[in-house]
Design a protein that fits this description.
There is one protein chain. With 359 residues, the chain is of the alpha/beta class. It has a single domain (6-194, 279-358), classed as Rossmann fold. 35% of the residues lie in helices and 15% in strands. It has helices at 6-15, 24-27, 87-93, 134-149, 162-173, 193-207, 224-238, 241-247, 251-267, 272-280, 316-321, 350-358, and strands at 29-39, 45-56, 70-74, 106-111, 156-160, 181-184, 298-303, 326-331. It has an eight-stranded mixed β-sheet, with helices on both faces. Strand 1 and strand 2 (45-56) form a beta hairpin. The two termini are 39 Å apart. The relative contact order is 0.15.
């Protein structure tokens, strides 16, 4: 089974409702490429890494054979290339006349380094796997596109959560490769304060589990304490207080909903080493000093009920003003929004995207 992004899984467990069922993931084509001689920012090297990705739609080429209609989607921490190929996202964007209509757009959705079918610690190296960061992940995406997918430029990068931060890295490290950027649900400052603390809670929860054994555990599910800390932390970080208050207005209902959701999340055992690496990869992220270098159009959208990126933190309006062609949008909180997971519920920001693409 494909893994949802961690916070999308929280959203699904806590606030799931019925969804119309276009199975975009089943329609997607799966691809892989081996990238030889990959050097990480730490100086570590591997003879090769695997990058995996999914595509929807048909590439269009100009007279020189260059693909001209590629859009890359970038998933969140713990997710995969199919995380954004779900009805709550694709049903709003991929259909006829919609902003990323598959009749005119070629969708590329990677399993990012450390995730899905791309190279990761659980493939066998465990904690000997190089300690990658977001710069390494974006470098792997760039090589995947140019060496594997035959893509030399992108019409758009749209990223959620971790993918949102990757969009800022793309804008600074590969200027002009993407004509437009749409970062959803992140900040453009160093990850510190409560954001860093919540990540460290997850990391330490697994590392301090008595069954972790320096990363040499036999079965990920054996780390029961680590998984409980992981579940409790993510339930808090991924939820919307307004929605939960409406759905669990009494003490008894709140406790029952918490226990059901926590048990469901903890039961879906993740690989502890993979998870530690995924949350640690943000340690060097800090695009703020170079934002003025991003001169392509940028639509940056956050939601006011986001525990991880609360309104005003880091002054995103001022940060957006440092980019020559950027606009920041804050989606108001309500019992209908989905906390940090509002990024995946495209109906809340679809109109903004449509206007941005038409401008």
């Amino acid at each position: 089974m494909r893994v949802l992004s961690i916070l999308t899984l929280v959203l699904t467990l806590v606030t799931a409702g019925p969804a119309a069922a276009e199975d975009w993931a089943a329609r997607a084509e799966h691809h892989t490429v081996e990238l030889e001689d990959f050097t990480f920012g730490t100086g570590e090297t591997l003879p090769s890494i695997t990058m995996s990705w999914y595509t929807l739609g048909t590439p269009r080429r100009d007279a020189d054979g260059i693909i001209t209609n590629a859009v890359m989607l970038l998933h969140g921490t713990g997710g995969s290339g199919t995380s954004l190929l779900r009805p709550i996202f694709g049903n709003e964007l991929f259909g006829p006349g919609q902003p990323l209509d598959l009749a005119t757009h070629y969708i590329i959705s990677p399993d990012n380094l450390g995730h899905g079918d791309s190279s990761k610690p659980s493939d066998g190296m465990r904690t000997d796997f190089p300690r990658y960061d977001y710069d390494d992940m974006v470098k792997a995406q760039h090589r995947m596109l140019t060496e594997g997918a035959g893509v030399e430029s992108l019409d758009l990068i749209l990223g959620t959560s971790m993918g949102c931060m990757h969009a800022f890295v793309w804008g600074e490290d590969y200027p002009g490769f993407a004509d437009r950027l749409v970062p959803l649900a992140c900040n453009a400052i160093e990850i510190a304060g409560r954001n860093r603390m919540f990540r460290q809670m997850l990391i330490d929860g697994f590392r301090n589990d008595p069954d972790y054994d320096d990363g040499n555990y036999e079965d990920p599910a054996d780390l029961e304490t680590g998984h409980k800390i992981y579940a409790n932390t993510l339930l808090l970080a991924g939820s919307n207080p307004y929605r939960l208050q409406a759905e669990a207005p009494t003490r008894e209902e709140a406790i029952e909903q918490y226990r059901t959701a926590a048990a469901g999340l903890a039961a879906r055992a993740v690989d502890p080493n993979d998870t530690i690496y995924q949350f640690d990869a943000s340690r060097t992220y800090n695009p703020a000093p170079r934002l003025s270098e991003i001169d392509v159009p940028v639509l940056w959208i956050n939601s006011a009920d986001d525990f991880i990126n609360p309104p005003g933190l880091g002054n995103p309006e001022a940060l957006a003003a440092e980019m020559p062609n950027a606009r920041f949008v804050l989606i108001p909180a309500s019992k209908d929004t989905r906390g940090h997971g509002t990024h995946t519920a495209a109906r809340f920001w679809k109109d903004e995207l449509e206007a941005f693409l038409a401008d």
